[in-house]
Amino acid sequence: MAARNDGRALAEVLRSRMELEGSGFFVPSGERERLLSRVSRLRAAESPSGGKIAAAIGSLESIDSLRRLAESCTRCVLHETRRSVVFAEGPDHARVMCVGEAPGAREDETGVPFVGRAGQLLDRLLLSVGLAREDVYIANVLKCRPPGNRNPQPEEIEQCSPFLRRQVALVGPEVVIAFGTFAAQTLLGVRDSLGKLRGTVHAYEGVPLVATYHPAALLRNPQWTRPSWEDLQLVRRVLAEHSDG
Ligand code: URA
After folding, report:
1. pTM, to two decimals
2. Can you tell me which atom of ligand 1 is nearest the CA of 138?
3. Residues in the ligand 1 pocket, defined by CB under 6 Å
4. Domain-embedded: residue 183
5. At 89, which CATH number?
């Protein structure tokens, strides 16, 4: 009960400050992330159905029902500021599944993942190894945009990742490409840097997984283009081995 009241009060204060002062409101950024994180934790603790929803996610048998559940999700604080729930795009049974970090501004506006500058680069990277965007299933660790494109918070990942895990199970790809640290660490359940995780084929629940740089990081660090392309060659090899049977 105390957690419930605390959570509500803190959430109300944060919400009204954001409304009054915009996303750059007075709390210093480190402190703000800590507060937002605390709100998410308290919210999760006060939600009587939180555990039931997690169990429901794991038992859903179709992508459509999973999408509907995600579209009404209020498991973390991000539902308060989102315009869209960015669930995924692509064929329900694609051979390749790409996993990014979280929607940005354009994705939040359109409801479609990877449509901004990073998305355009993603399309080009995929094409460089013979993959058309329309043939690939594209999702993110978080389905809602973190305000100001801040990093996902651990509680948000905890609340949202059951959707991603179920997506992988239902799509059943031959290979998963984890773009960026958050996707790789979340799926592999490790804290290693991307530099350590890339360059090799891992397994996530028996599915080959290749971790590589996030396209947004590539835009800032063009020297990572070659290693990214090499990682995508690994993807190509996995697909070829799968076809050879
Ligand atoms: N970055 C991501 O990780 N995902 C998107 O959908 C867009 C940008």
Report:
1. 0.83
2. 6
3. 100-104, 107, 113-114, 116, 118-119, 140, 216
4. yes
5. 3.40.470.10
